[in-house]
Here is the input.
Amino acid sequence: MRKRLKENEIQEALALLEEMHPEAACALDHRSRFELIVAVVLSAQTTDVSVNKVTPALFERYPDAHALAAADPDDVSEIIHTIGLYKNKSVNIVKLAAKICDDFGGEVPGSFDELVSLPGVGRKTANVVLAEAFGVPAIAVDTHVFRVSNRIGIANAKDVEKTEEQLRKRIPEEQWIRSHHLLIFHGRKICHARKPDCDACILSQICLYNSR
Here is the structure.
């Protein structure tokens, strides 16, 4: 039983994903690098739709890192209370904004190591910001990317970091950003966690999910 797709099959899978999800893109509403990094931090264990409902009021009150750094976390909590873990996230984004101001002159930094030094920012968030805000090739592995890439057979790993490592090796660098969006959209729309809609998926002939 094969555990991973061959190189040519990966390219076929990505082409089919593009055919199914040509609209795939970052689903978090943002107008700046600052808004993006805050939105990504808020999106942990919460849907992007839920985040998009609270960020307009949040960014109207706190339009940049300097404003948010001076905020009372309790006031931030009142604005974002409809999303998961809102109390912890309120504290984190205020601390994040303060560190951006103190260490980076109020501007979101553009290197991986600098990004993960910020409160609430892990590998996934750093990679999203690098790719979306700076155009740096990166693959952010969230729950959708982890699930879908391993189901299809692009990867064969048991944790997020090993999945990212395999994807970086098996997908050409110039396709990393696009692949990230395609895998997320496929996970949201078809390859659901509990019951993937295989009948509606045109990858069925090459996907390894049903052969395991």
Summary: The mean pLDDT is 96.
